[in-house]
Amino acid sequence: AQSVTQLGSHVSVSEGALVLLRCNYSSSVPPYLFWYVQYPNQGLQLLLKYTSAATLVKGINGFEAEFKKSETSFHLTKPSAHMRDAAEYFCAVSEGAGGTSYGKLTFGQGTILTVHP
Amino acid sequence: DAMVIQNPRYQVTQFGKPVTLSCSQTLNHNVMYWYQQKSSQAPKLLFHYYDKDFNNEADTPDNFQSRRPNTSFCFLDIRSPGLGDAAMYLCATSRDGLARGETQYFGPGTRLLVL
């Protein structure tokens, strides 16, 4: 069974500061990992994903994430926060080849990012 | 430009009155999903279609049904909405399921209010 834990339901940073959103996963097979962003009253938009190629993944809007197998983590970072980054962020996992959870994403509980001027 | 389209964006219904939410896609993907998302919670998968094959999640209430008449369209029917069904409903698609790390594309959602 796969699961995702996002540490911190709320993160607050100042504009220009580093953004760090934490995600740890559990999976019985090599995972595929995703970060999605959701703005108020909108659907989810893919920021980036890890699919067993490079462990450092670059996404849209200046975000990146590093897959660390030894720590079962996939934390999301951005060097300098903008006001427009204020949103809710979801980490998600789907099982790779050999997994039984065909067709499913398992989401973390989400982290609301607030950016202060 | 829109790839996954949901109509309407906001839907108000009365307690117990059947309601249908619609989703269409221009991606020609095989798989379409319906999620329910309550306030400050993660999306919860209700069911998905791989082509015409329907896959229901074990804990999806019988009150929720779905139809997929063709590749492009998928509908969510709530037979007798209760107050607890007020939520954002998200439609999503993927080309062939997620076993190979494919991206799932989401629509903008329909917010359902039950009076």
What's the SSE pattern of chain B? EEEEEEEEEEE
Largest sheet of chain B, if any? 7 strands, mixed
The shape of chain A, in one word, is globular
Radius of gyration of chain A: 14 Å
Main sheet makeup of chain A: 6 strands, mixed
Structural class of chain B: mainly beta
- Quantity of strands of chain A, as a count: 11
The assigned structural class of chain A equals mainly beta
| Beta content of chain A | over 45%
Name the beta content range of chain B: over 45%
- Fraction of helical residues of chain B: under 10%
Quote the distance from N terminus to C terminus of chain A: 41 Å
Radius of gyration of chain B: 13 Å
Which chains share the greatest interface?
A-B, 29 and 30 residues
- Total strands of chain B: 11
Runs of chain A with pLDDT <50, length 5+?
97-101
